[in-house]
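thread: overnight batch results

M.L. [08:02]
morning all. the overnight job finished for the chain we discussed friday. pasting input first so we're all looking at the same thing
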Amino acid sequence: MKKSALSVFFLACVLTTGLWSGLASAATNIAQGKTTFASSVKNNSQAPERAVDGDHGTRWSSDHGDNEWITVDLGERYDLTEARLYWHNAYAEDYEVQVSDDGNSWAVVKSVIDSDGGLDELSFSGQGRYVRIEGYRPGTNRGYSLLELEVYGEPVVDDTDTTTGGTDTTTDETNTTTDDTTTNDTGTTTDDTTTTDDTTTTDNTDTTTDNTDTSTDNLALHKTAVASSVEHDYLGPEQAIDGDPDTRWSSDFSDHNWITVDLEDRYDLSSIKLYWQNSYSKDYDIKVSDDGNNWTTIKSVVDSDGGLDELNVSGQGRYVRIEGYRRATQWGHSLWELEVYGEPATDPTVTNVALSKVAFASSVENDYLGPEHAIDGNPDTRWSSDFSDHNWITVDLGSEHELVEAKLYWQNSYSKDYDIKVSNDGNNWTTVKSVIDSDGGLDELSFSGRGRYVRIEGYRRATEWGHSLWELEVYGYASDTDSTGTVEDSTTVSDTDSTDSTSEDTGSVTEDTQAPTVPAGLSAVDVGDTWTALSWDAASDDTEVFSYELYRDGALVAELLAPTTSYTDQGLISGASYHYAVRAGDSAGNWSGLSGSLQVSTTESTETVSTVDESTTVAGAVTLEWVTPDQRANGDYLELYEIGGYEIRYRNLDNSVTGSIVIEDNVATSYSFESLEGDYQFFIAVYDTNGLYSEFVALAPI
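M.L. [08:03]
and the structure it wrote out:
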C-alpha cells in the first residue's frame, strides 16, 4: 500500500454553468479553425489547434518551460487590430504578441508585463500572415495554457509584393501537434532525451536519380551492393551492377550465399533479370526489405538452368537480395549482371497502430492503472508499474508492422533509462532504440523496425515510484507480407563492404496450440479494508508459461509476466465481497481455463477520513470544486510547485460502476463532468511531483 504523506483538505461540490458561456463578438475571429503549431505540447489532447477551435472547453498546453510559444497561420496577410487571449490557470505573466509575413522574421506588436491571467484583450497595430504568442515568464510552474486565442483584423488590400513565398519558407506547417522540427526559428529539437540508437537506420527519403521516370530503367545500375562472400577482391558484388557484361560477382565455394543491392528508395518491383555465369544458382530466393534487416521472399526459383533468368515479381522495398541455397557446380554463385525494374513506391499511410490494441505489462501498481490505459487514446488514464526499476509494457499490434516512430507521454514517474524493442513472436526481441537520461514529459523517438509486438522496457526509474505512461503511441503501417512464421536475423558481413548486413535463416517456428494448465491454489494471503494480497501456484506448459490474467468479479484487473504468481489488489471498498479467478497464457496466445472462484471480503474500515459518505443525486452536468492544499500530513508547508495534480474517484451507487480522473495541473481547483445521472459518491486526493498521494476524501454536496 502506498503510504500517504499529504494532508487531507476541504473540498466542496457545486453545480455551475459554463465559465465562458454568453461570450460573443460581432467582429470575425480570423484565427478560428486555422493552422497552428507550437514550440511544445504537454500531451496529445492539448495540441495547439485546441486554442483556435472555438471551444473554451479545450486548450493548448506547453511543456513546463519558460520560453514557449504558439503560432497561428491566418492563410493570408491581414491588417491586425486586436487579440484576445483566454488563459487557463497556467497563464503567461510576461509575453509578446508577434507578427510575420513568412514565419521566419518576426516583429513585436505588443509586449505584456505582469499579466494576471484570465482574459487579456489587447489592441495593437500590425500586418502579417502569422501571429505568435511568445511567453517568457509563466505565472505558475506548469508552462503556458490557452483556452482560446482570437485574432481580429481585415485582409490587406493590393498585397502583391509581399505575399509570395509565405508558405514556401515555413517548413511543413500542416503538422500542428508535437513535432518541433516543423518550426524554423526557435532551435528546438524533436527528441527531448539523450538517446543511443542500437540499430543502423537508413534514410529512406532520398530519391534515386535518372531511374524514376519509367519502369524500363534498371534501378540497380551503379547502386551500392554487398554480399555474403567473394571469391577474390576483383569479383566483388559491385561488379554485378556496373552495366558491364564482362565483369561479375562470384561467391566463395559454398551453397548458402547472397548478394544485396540498395536501390536508395522504396520501389514497386515488377521484374528481375539475372545474367548467370557458368557457376549459377540452382535454387534461390528473391527477397525485398525496407531496412536491410527484415526480409520478405517475393520469388522462389527451384532447378534453374542458368543463363538468363527473366522473372516477373511483385513486391515493395528498398533492398533486393538474391539468396542462393544450392549451387549448380562445385564452385560458388556467380552473376555477370543483376538488373531490377519497377516504379517508385507510394508511401504507405502511417498511423498510431497501437491505439486500442492488446497491452500487457510486467506489473501494475493497482487495478485501475493497467497497461490497457496507456493505449486507449485517453490522456487522463495511465499505466503504472510497481515500485521497482526493471519493468516493461508490451503492446500486441495484431499483425506484423513496419515501425518508424514512438511517442511516449510520461507521467511524473517516468523512466530515466529504457529500450524500445520489437518482436515477431513475443519471445525473441530486437532493440531498435535505447534512451539514456530521459527527462520525462514527451519523448518522440524515430527508429526503424519491424514486428508484431512493441515493448518499452525500463531499467532505471526517475523517482521512488514505478514507471508510468499516460499514453504510448506507435506509428507505422501493416507489412505487405506477415513473416511471423519465419524469423530472419543476421550477422554476416560483406567481405567487400564495411556495412553490416544481416541474414541468418533460423528456420520456421512450429505452431503451438497447447494451452497451459489451469493455475491452482488461488488464495488471499492478507486482507485489508481497501486491499487484498493474492497468490497462486505456477501453471505448467509444453513450452513455457508467459503471463497470467487475474479477474475480479468477471473483469480483468491485472496482467502479470511469469514467473510472478502474486498480486495486491488495491482501491477496494471496505466491508465488501469480491470474487477472483486467474488463468495462464503462453507466448503463442493459448490460454488455460479460469481457476476456481475465490471469495474475498475486505475488512471494515476503522479510520474516518471524512464525515461525509452520503451520495449525491445528479442529472446532467456537475462541477466539483476544491481548495488548494498548503500542508503535508507531517505539518510541513506544501508549496504550489510541489503539487503534481489531483485524482478524482467516483462511484455510481445504482450500478456500482466506478471511475477515476487524473488532473495533471497543480493550480486546478475544479473539474466538470459533462453528463452524469444517478446517485454518486465523489472522492479526491492530491499527489505531489514525486507521485506521493494524500488520503482520498469525500466531496460534500451543498
